[in-house]
Design brief:
This protein has two domains: 3-246, TIM Barrel (Alpha-Beta Barrel), CATH 3.20.20.70; 264-275 and 295-353, no CATH class. Helices cover 44% and strands 14% of the residues. The protein is built from 14 helices and twelve strands. The chain has helices spanning 11-17, 22-32, 44-50, 70-78, 98-109, 126-138, 155-168, 184-194, 214-224, 235-246, 267-275, 302-311, 318-335, 341-353, and strands at residues 3-4, 6-9, 39-43, 62-66, 83-88, 113-118, 143-148, 173-177, 198-201, 227-228, 263-264, 293-294. The longest helix has 18 residues, at 318-335. The chain is elongated. The protein starts with a strand and ends in a 6-residue tail after the last helix. 38% of the residues are buried.
Length: 359
């Protein structure tokens, strides 16, 4: 049986970092509440800066990211959080230190579900990582987060490190990848393939240094990894709504959710897509709530033209189609862009219905 992957969300943290208006922040939170994330991370100071009545007060899936300070632990507890992630920078050969152990113990006294983020994990040698992980396991933290804060990892290194850590660490591990070089999703998949079950994501990969994109990872997990994550039937629409609230404009060709990723124009290409779409598309557009779109432009052929016109209940014989296709291509070249549906209909009326003498 496939094991379930737990995704930790950073989208709200980015919205708070950008100081989106309070109403927009709440709107984002409500949208994300429909996604089965394991928890939603947010920096405690960002949360408190809004100084508003929190409708999600005490929600089980919210986790405050804090520093290793007694005051911050108490503030998170008083704010209603029941999950915290304590930031930790390890000094090589320095050991865990009594202060960190005491801080964790203080959090446990408050019955807070406590995770620790090793923020400089990707700079540590394996021996140091194993020692640190063992020390945190001994003080009974719920999870240990390996943070690639500087985007130093690649998938091969990530996989090897997590295989080793999982072999020698009893405490559950999570992977927090950053995306300075576009490898966050690949690195997260590598950690999952090594056996990790907890990874950090953000819708659209948003973040100061970027994160693994939620939509990319959730599709890849279900397609490529021996694990599962509940997939939304309207995945693209949900992501677009969230990104619009944050003020992020994604390109039309954005992986998984871009409106143009299922757009086809080339005549030969369209003929193939209509016959065997699985040869041209990695998954059906319906899986993410999108639809296939045939672009009518200078590269279009009779197959795509006929399919588009059929959708508009327009039928033409062979000679009409040859003539009309030539007119379509000329117009697309003149305006240096594909034709809209309205333009196509009008051109059909001008060039076919009003053409005197027939074909």
């Amino acid at each position: 049986m496939d094991e379930v992957v737990l995704l930790r969300d950073q989208t709200l943290a980015e919205a708070a970092r950008l100081q989106v208006p309070w109403k927009q922040f709440i709107k984002i939170a409500k949208i994300l509440d429909g996604i089965p994330f394991d928890c939603y991370d947010i920096k405690l100071e960002d949360w408190l800066n809004y100084r508003q009545s929190i409708p999600f007060y005490g929600a089980k899936r919210w986790r405050a990211r804090i520093e290793a300070q007694y005051g911050q632990i108490e503030a998170a507890y008083q704010a209603g959080f029941r999950k915290i992630a304590i930031g930790y920078e390890h000094s090589p050969h320095g050991g865990l230190g009594k202060k960190m152990a005491a801080v964790v113990a203080f959090a446990k006294e408050r019955k807070l579900e406590t995770s620790v983020e090793i923020r400089n994990a990707s700079r540590l040698h394996m021996e140091e990582l194993l020692a640190v992980s063992s020390s945190f396991s001994a003080v009974a933290v719920e999870t240990i987060a390996y943070c690639d804060t500087e985007s130093r990892m690649d998938p091969f290194i990530t996989n090897a490190i997590f295989e080793k850590l999982l072999e020698h660490t009893d405490c559950p591990l999570e992977f927090h990848a950053h995306n300075k070089y576009g490898l966050a999703t690949a690195n997260s998949l590598a950690a999952l393939q090594a056996g990790a079950k907890r990874v950090t994501v953000a819708v659209g990969g948003v973040g100061g240094s970027g994160h693994a994109a939620y939509e990319e990872l959730t599709m890849a997990v279900n397609k490529l990894v021996n694990s599962v994550f509940p997939r939304l039937p309207n995945l693209a629409a949900v992501c677009h709504r969230v990104l619009a609230c944050i003020g992020v404009e994604e390109p039309l060709t954005k992986t998984i959710i871009g409106l143009d990723i299922f757009a086809h124009e080339s005549g030969i290409h369209v003929a193939g897509v209509l016959k065997q779409p699985e040869l041209y598309e990695p998954f059906s557009p319906e899986e993410v709530g999108l639809s296939r779109r045939l672009v009518i432009g200078k590269h279009s052929g009779k197959t795509s033209l006929a399919a588009t016109l059929q959708h508009a209940n327009i039928a033409m014989d062979e000679s009409q189609a040859e003539f009309f296709l030539a007119q379509v291509r000329q117009m697309a070249i003149r305006q240096k862009s594909p034709l809209t549906e309205e333009q196509l209909t009008k051109l059909y009326q001008d060039c076919v219905l009003r053409r005197v003498g027939g074909f």
